[in-house]
Amino acid sequence: MPQRPLFFFRNIIFLFSCTLALWACGGDEDAKKAAAPEKAPPAVSVRTMLPASRDVPVYGEFVGRTDAKETVEIRARVEGFLKARLFEEGSLVKTGDVLFEIESRQYDESLKRAQADLDRQQALLAKAATDLSRFEALYKQQAISRDEYDTKVTSQKDLAAQADRAKAELETARRDLSYTKVVAPISGRIGKSLVKPGTLVGKGENTLLAEISSTDPIYVDFNISEREYLGLIKDMVEDQKQGKSAEKAKLTLILADDSVYSHTGQAEMADRAVDAKTGTLPVRASFPNPDGILKPGQFAKVRALVDTLAGALCVPRSAVVDVQGVKTLYVVGPDGAVEAKSVTLGPVAEDMVAVSKGLAPTDAVIVEGLQKIRPGIKVSVQAEAQAAGQPAAAKPAGN
């Protein structure tokens, strides 16, 4: 009995000693880990490029509306029932094409009466001329009195006047008859018919039947600000001083779906005065429209070259980080750490954008690896990226 407690006590002491030994070993490992220096994370690999210095064209965009060069109202010029419509609504028509027919029977009859009246008056005039010739011979022979001769002269003049009146009435009858066939005065696209066959037209007023608009070329009307107008005038004066030819600038048309119209245009005219209410000057441009794509009344934007930024600093558009409207470029500092620079952007030219403020020519702009960096971290710069080629076209500032 006395030996059992002693054995139990010895076992407890042995287990406690083992626990102390294991704890001591674990503590040594933790101490070693704490004493070992922490390894730095590997540097992020990026590519950089210096800003490219280029002359960047600045384009302005002006909202405008298309309009036909000519728009003609087709109206009934004589009274009558509309007999037929001889065109397809919305189709192209040519000058002289018959569009409508008005009932012509009454005008045929008027023409015949006018012709008969003219024939009668001409017959009477011919007889009066013969009588006057005969009376003139008798008067010279003193066979008749002066009064008788003067009466024949007056009668002959009266009949001549009546013949002229009859001739004018015949021309009027012919004209009215021709108006029963309503023809196209210009070539272009005709709209829908505004009057159906069988309707009485031309009574009391010249009834509007349809409208025709020319298709090629087509006008685009837009407004430019007074400041832009003055800038353009100064450029024109400067070009003239330098002996440059005063060629009209080519204009680009941007359609409602943001597609670029295939034909370029040019300014045709500017209005005589600046609108005092809006401070803008109405301008009209002309664009070829051989395929009839453009129709009057369309909204479109006219893009025009308004200035050129000489020696602008340009970077790839993909290098710009936009956070809630704030434009930022990441650059590599002298110590190899990433720095964020807020910048102001200028016009965009394809894959390049001009930076007007916030960037130095010596800044190494990060153009690849943007997703893996943040301000302050160290980066490893690979081979410097090549600047893109000179862009062929530019877009307005603000994109």
From TrEMBL:
Domain Multidrug resistance protein MdtA-like barrel-sandwich hybrid: 70-209
InterPro entries reported in the protein's UniProt record: MdtA-like_b-barrel, MdtA-like_BSH, MdtA-like_C, MdtA-like_HH, RND_pump_MFP
Chain ranges of the Multidrug resistance protein MdtA-like beta-barrel domain: 217-307
Ranges in a coiled coil: 104-131
Keywords: Coiled coil, Signal
Residues covered by the Multidrug resistance protein MdtA-like C-terminal permuted SH3 domain: 312-372
Family: Belongs to the membrane fusion protein (MFP) (TC 8.A.1) family.
Name of protein: Efflux RND transporter periplasmic adaptor subunit
Organism per entry: Desulfolutivibrio sulfodismutans
